[in-house]
Write a structure and sequence with these properties.
The chain has 136 residues and is mainly alpha-helical. It has one domain (9-125): TIM Barrel (Alpha-Beta Barrel), CATH 3.20.20.100. It is built from 5 helices and 2 strands, in the order H-E-H-H-E-H-H. It has helices at residues 14-19, 55-69, 75-85, 99-110, 116-125, and strands at residues 24-27, 89-93. A two-stranded parallel ribbon has the order 1-2. It is globular, with a radius of gyration of 14 Å.
Amino acid sequence: MQYSILDRRPEEYFQFLSEHNISVVTRGSIAKGILSQRSLQSLSSAKDGYLTYTVREIEQLRDVLLQTYVKEYSLTKIALDYCLFHTPVASVVAGASSIEQLRQNAKAVTAPPITEDALKNVARIAKQTYYEQHRT
């Protein structure tokens, strides 16, 4: 399933998944590169925003994350660890369009994990979103 700091819709089902010992593999954890070290100006995928986030909201979130954690963690590390922190997430599929991005992804997942308190803080900073379509 698609899941990232910018797309937290799956979280509403995580308790159910955990209770039934169901694991998921997520994709889109770096949100088309928005949650990577790349400059936001270089990301054509972010020019109109991302899901419920406007460009300005993305800029603000990235700024807060970088100001809060830049000394300890890369933005890629925060994005991947955030997803992996949740019990139902067994693995993330992180795309890469260059060897350098592949190296950044590998470095992020092999570095020591981010603390639980830091990841809970990321959840407080980011919007909680829910699935709006296909509800009965």
